[in-house]
Every structure is written in C-alpha cells, then in structure tokens.
Amino acid sequence: MRPVTIFRGWSLAGCYAAMLVIGLLMSVYGPIVTVLQGRFELSAAAVGAALGTQSFAAVIGVLLAQPLLRARGNRWTIVLAMALIAVGSLVIAISPTWPLLLAGTAVAGLGFGGVDSLITQLILVGSGAKGPGRANIAHAWFGIGTVAGPGLVFLVGPGNYAWIFAGAAALMVFALLSATRLEPRPTPAEVTTAAHPDDTAPARRPALFGIVIVAFFALYLTHFAVQAGIGNWSPTVLQEQSDLAAPTATLFVTGFWAAMVLGRFAAATLA
Using 50, 70 and 90 to split pLDDT, how confident is the model at 261? Predict the structure, then answer.
C-alpha cells in the first residue's frame, strides 16, 4: 500500500499550534478564578461552571468529530473545530456578561474536543514511520500550552486575561489557515479499512476486551479529573488557605503543569 499523504505545506505546523492553544485553554482558567468572581460577582463554585461547561462541551465535540470526519473529510472537520475554538476564545475575551462568557466556553469546548481527538489520529495515519514521533511532538506542544496559560497570567496579570484569550484566538486563526492545506481524504477510518479489507472476524475474548476498554476509560477519567482539578483549583485554594499572593499561587500551578510535561516526555521515553 502506498504511503498516505495528508499534510501539505504548513498544515502540520498548524496542528502543532492548535495543540498549544488547547493546552493553554486547559490551564488558563484556574489562575483567573478570583478575578472572574470579582468581575461578575459570583462564588467560586459558580465560576467553576465555566470549567465544567468547556469540559462537557469537549466531550460532545469528541463524539461529533468522528461522524463528521467520515462524512466531510479531514480538512473540513479540523477547520471547523479550529474555527469554534477561535470564535469561543474571542467571545470569552470580549464578554461583558457571565452568560455570554459561558457561551464562549461552550463553543470553544466543542472545538477543543474535535481538535484533541482528531489531530493525533491524522498525524499517526498521515506521517508514516514518523507518525509516533510527530504525535509525541504534538502532545509536547499541548504540554507547553498548559505551562504557558498560567505563565501568561503571571506576566500580564489576572485582570488582563482577555488579552490571553484574544491571543489564543489569533493563534488558532493561523492554525486554521494552515489546516486548509490538509488533504480532505483519506480519513483514518478509510486508511484502516483499506489496510484490512477482510478483517471481519469477531474479536477473540470479547469479555477481556470489554474489561480492558472499561479499565482504560476509568484510568483516563481519573487522570483528567486530577489534571483539571489540581491545575484549575490549586491557585484559588493556595490564595484562600495559605494566604499566598495571586502571582505566587500562579507560579505554583505553573510548576504543576511543567511537571505534567516532564511526565509526558518520561512516559514516551519509557515506552
């Protein structure tokens, strides 16, 4: 079977940039919780709705991405997901009211789920033998984004968070324009079908397969909960219970995300 070509021009760089942006969106809310509380006169629990809205929308984005990918192809689906993130981030940046900001997080979350679930697939399918290495690079950029989120809050100040979201929107526009060079097809599912056209036999040990899937689901759910929980709430907890200034608490959470990046590289090396 001939090698599959999916990435042309700057499309791969655009995908790396998109991974950086979604990493930033994962980590930037935590350091600005107290600012959002004061600006919109909300409790910390109410502000947590923004985090929950983005995460819930991301799950929906993951579920919608695959049927859209099969129906419309690589380019259209990725560009749509990136456009949702750009629009959602811009809405968050300019929102004068809390409901509008929540709407922005929902829109960005839909795109987040699509980008997060599709880019790794496309890289593995469209990069041949270089696929695993490029996938690791993509997730390294995600990790850099998680460090950049609180780092930028520390540099510009929590009250200027709108500039961070506006910058995320601008970077995602670059990613979107680059992604227009993606080949529409073949999609990952089409490549798999072409490689194994007669693979219709039932899987062996279906019970064991189900147990493995459930175990991985539980593991990933726990991982995401710990990652999002510590990454987003530790700045607030440190300020309220340890009397730390907001910039110091932000530096602590930057260290947490940096440790996550080191863990990713360590896992890749061990694998």
Answer: confident
Q: Is this structure's pTM higher than 0.85?
A: yes
* Banded model confidence at residue 9, pLDDT cuts 50, 70, 90: confident
Question: 78: which residues sit within 8 A by CB, 6+ positions away?
Answer: 15, 114, 115, 118, 119, 122, 179, 182
Closest CA to 88 of 113, 110, 107, 116: 107
pLDDT band at 1 (very low <50, low <70, confident <90, very high): very low
- What is the amino acid identity at position 145? G
Give the per-residue SS3 of the chain.
CCCCCCCCCCHHHHHHHHHHHHHHHHHCCHHHHHHHHHHHCCCHHHHHHHHHHHHHHHHHHHHHHHHHHHHHCHHHHHHHHHHHHHHHHHHHHHCCCHHHHHHHHHHHHHHHHHHHHHHHHHHHHHCHHHHHHHHHHHHHHHHHHHHHHHHHHHHHCHHHHHHHHHHHHHHHHHHHHHHCCCCCCCCHHHHHHHHCCCCCCCCCCHHHHHHHHHHHHHHHHHHHHHHHHHHHHHHHHHHHHCCCCHHHHHHHHHHHHHHHHHHHHHHHHHC
Q: Over the stretch 204-217, which tens digit does the pLDDT of each residue have? A: 678 888 899 999 98
Q: What is the pLDDT of residue 55?
A: 85
Q: Is pLDDT at 109 greater than 70 in this prediction?
A: yes
